[in-house]
Specification:
The chain is of the alpha/beta class and about 230 residues long. It is built from eight helices and six strands; from the N terminus they run βαααααβαβαβαββ. A six-stranded parallel beta sheet has the order 3-2-1-4-5-6, with helices on both faces. It binds ligand L4RZE5RM and magnesium ion. Its cofactor is Mg(2+).
């Protein structure tokens, strides 16, 4: 088979939702107020804090901005500013070895196989690109960053918007029919398909105890594990 490109989501697809919700988010919640107080004047941090303040009626203190961000963590908001800040917060935790990122063993094995067969692998996640690189650089299976050639986050556009996938196709320099998008979220797959990509729903039993079977809820190809997915 001609080598193709695989574009994969992270949370719920290569990796468990529980790890993100039970390890990463509580860690970010715990360290955020102190981090904002200590690093809030650094331009890379200030840029995002100012964006949050402006979008919330011009919040006038960093303590108020922190409160908004803590609320967004609890709501699992996929806001670009929050995601960028979370990447900065997690950096020290990964470096200190406080946690390693979860990646399902079936995903690791299949990604390695596809890579060895010449398929091109890229990531598209709501997590910021630096957060994605930390995640795969400090995974339970070791440093998986060399598997991936390109990384995309919501700076290219929202994951439920077809235009984001059109932008990504331009960066991959491939026709849509050569690209397969893997995700656990039906609305993301709908948007990718609108842009012409092939789509596969990852419907992992540990994350989604009630199977999202076809017809009534979606009409994407559905698998529960990466090793059910053959590209050949
Ligand atoms: C890779 S950063 C940690 C996960 C995260 O914060 C996130 O929002 C992941 O969302 P996804 O688009 O990968 O489902
Ligand atoms: Mg996901």
């Amino acid at each position: 088979m001609k080598p193709c490109a695989i574009l994969t989501d992270i949370e719920g697809t290569t990796s468990s939702i529980a790890f993100v919700k039970e390890v990463l988010f509580p860690y970010a919640r715990r360290v955020l107020p102190q981090y904002v107080a200590s690093h809030g004047r650094e331009p890379e941090v200030r840029r995002w804090l100012d964006q949050v303040a402006a979008e919330n009626g011009g919040l006038c203190s960093d303590a108020m901005i922190s409160e908004v961000l803590l609320g967004w963590i609890d709501e699992d908001r996929k806001h670009t500013a929050l995601k960028a800040l979370q990447g900065l917060l997690w950096e020290e935790g990964y470096r200190r070895g406080d946690f390693k990122a979860h990646v399902y063993p079936d995903a690791v094995a299949r990604l390695q196989l596809w890579k060895s067969r010449g398929h091109d692998l890229s990531v598209y996640s709501s997590g910021s690109v630096p957060a994605q690189k930390l995640f795969f650089g400090h995974s339970e299976a070791g440093d998986l960053r060399p598997l991936f050639s390109q990384w995309f986050d919501t700076e290219i556009g929202g994951k439920r918007e077809a235009d984001s996938y059109r932008q990504i196709l331009g960066r991959l320099e491939r026709p849509a029919e050569e690209v397969v998008f893997l995700s656990d979220v039906v609305e993301e797959l709908d948007a990718a398909r609108d842009a012409g990509l092939a789509t596969v729903l990852l419907d992992r039993r540990s994350d989604y105890p009630t199977p999202r079977l076809g017809e009534a809820t979606h009409d994407h190809r559905r698998v529960e594990r990466f090793d059910e997915l053959s590209l050949d």
